[in-house]
Design a protein that fits this description.
Order of helices and strands: EEHEHEEHHHHEHEHHHEEHH
Radius of gyration: 20 Å
Structural class: alpha/beta
Distance between the termini: 29 Å
CATH class of one domain: Alpha Beta
Strand content: 15-25%
Largest sheet: 5 strands, parallel
Strand order of the largest sheet: 3-4-2-5-6
Number of strands: 9
């Protein structure tokens, strides 16, 4: 189902008795691609599912969901843990370090100019600095900020030379290892596929981690220069735009086409310096589905669910 005005609607699948399925998911999180919303929606759904199971199954132990981005995340103790969901900025290949390697990898790419622009203005917002044309030029000229998507998907670090980025290797890695990949336009499709695969609750979620208008720069005067400096990311994006993988083979044959009986609502709670967080509320699906079907669930209506719960 398509995005509904401001909140995203991700449709899960009904969970029948004795029909619990768990396919752990690893998100290769490429910075400023909209993946925070995807991760938060999936984490909310996994957490809600485990909580519902725990209420009826004594001694049930839920698997963890979270982010692994820091150097200490490479510790032996951490990689021996079993996770339901991980998102990470680590280069491609990090998923193989776990004692139980992930087989369901997903990722999202973004149009290269908009991704670089967003990375700069978002950084300004978090640091409280006013964006300027010269600041933007210094940012996109830095090797660290060039061809970031191709670097990470080809297994390289963002601090490597941009000339080492390899779109061809990135594309090969995607087709050989990822169950789902697409552009920001496919976030709804990819998220809903993972919800259905794991028979998880539906999710109605704010668009998270957006840059506030006061930190945006007008005009696209540097667009051509940025695209030239990010040639590998341009090739990568063009390929994925034309060849997305947004359906899991044979999944549709196993579906009930009935939304999950519970829906997780996730509302953004944010501040400029620390980032975006989501607070969640789980409700019966019949409270929200009529609004979704009728197209009446805009941002105002969405927020009312949280007002009535306080």
């Amino acid at each position: 189902m398509a995005r509904v005005l401001d909140p995203y609607w991700f449709c899960g699948e009904i969970l029948a008795p004795g029909n619990l399925e768990l396919h752990p998911v690893y998100i290769q999180h490429l910075p400023k691609t909209g993946t925070t919303t995807l991760f938060t929606a999936l984490k909310g759904a996994f957490d809600a599912q485990f909580q519902m199971i725990a209420e009826g199954v004594p001694n049930f132990t839920a698997l963890r969901s979270g982010r692994l981005d820091a150097p200490e995340d490479l510790s032996v103790g951490r990689i021996r843990e079993q996770f339901a969901l991980i998102a990470s900025h680590h280069p491609f290949g990090f998923h193989q370090r776990f004692e139980k390697p992930f087989t369901k990898l997903i990722t999202v790419v973004r149009e290269p100019y908009r991704r670089v622009y967003s990375a700069y203005t978002y950084g300004c917002m978090r640091s409280g600095e006013k964006p300027t044309p010269q600041g933007f030029k210094d940012f996109f000229g830095d090797e660290t900020n060039r061809n970031v998507m191709s670097k990470l998907l080809s297994g390289r670090n963002v601090h490597d030379r941009s000339g080492d980025a390899d779109a061809e290797t990135s594309i090969t890695n995607l087709h050989n290892n990822f169950v789902l990949f697409g552009t920001t336009a496919h976030i709804t499709d990819i998220t809903s596929q993972i919800l259905k695969l794991n028979k998880l609750p539906n999710v109605l979620c704010d668009h998270l981690n957006k840059t506030e208008k006061e930190y945006l720069l007008p005009g696209d005067e540097f667009k051509d220069e940025i695209l030239s400096l990010n040639d590998q990311d341009v090739s990568l994006f063009d390929h994925i735009h034309k060849n997305p993988r947004i359906e899991i083979p044979h999944l549709n044959e196993q579906r009930t086409n009935t939304p999950h009986q519970r829906t997780v609502l996730i509302q953004e709670v944010t501040n400029k310096t620390e980032g975006a967080f989501g607070r969640s509320l789980t409700v019966p699906t019949d409270r929200v589905l009529p609004l979704i079907v009728d197209g009446r669930c805009d941002k105002t209506q969405f927020d009312k669910f949280f007002e009535s719960d306080t």
